[in-house]
């Protein structure tokens, strides 16, 4: 009787582990979709701003998240197959896939954290130079569009304030046609509206565009970190369940 009871108990534990792994796979798919969505959102929603950054760390973090999210979708399917078939080889493959994705997300998280720490300093050092030296210059159309969108989206003018534009290559050239600031600084854009530098006409924001862009990027990095940590915790649970089921199947003489 004790042997029969022990076998029934082991079968019950195996079934429980299988259901737990099924539930985990569903949550894993949801988490993978979230990771993929955050990565795409980061690159698509405000991709113009990436050309204003001195380093590519922010973009690399987003690309890594997209890669991890895509792998999660495939791995979730593999996990379901492994649970249904109850084969140790499938479970081993599934476990190492989870571990690989976990390491990828860990790298993305470290990059996001490191970049978050130096974000403010980078913007202070490079944003003003990028805006004043490259705006409306030949071959710098992407930066020009990014600056125009930045000033309109965040209702700001200049990296620190509107006076930054006085020393810019664009304002000093004939192309500016006596503008004091680009037209994208205007609250209501009309041709040559940048000729009048007055608070009623252009944006006068304390801290300029640096403060606005820094806050925007910091919020994105926090979202990347939060989603990455959440899915990483799910993966740790999945690896534990997979190991338990692997041992249980290994102990089964059949």
Automatic annotation (TrEMBL):
Pfam families listed in its UniProt record: Tetraspanin
Transmembrane segments: 20-42, 62-84, 91-116, 221-246
Recorded GO CC terms: plasma membrane
Keywords: Membrane, Transmembrane, Transmembrane helix
Name of the protein: Tetraspanin
Family assignment from sequence similarity: Belongs to the tetraspanin (TM4SF) family.
InterPro entries per UniProt: Tetraspanin/Peripherin, Tetraspanin_animals, Tetraspanin_EC2_sf
Membrane topology: Multi-pass membrane protein
Protein location: Membrane
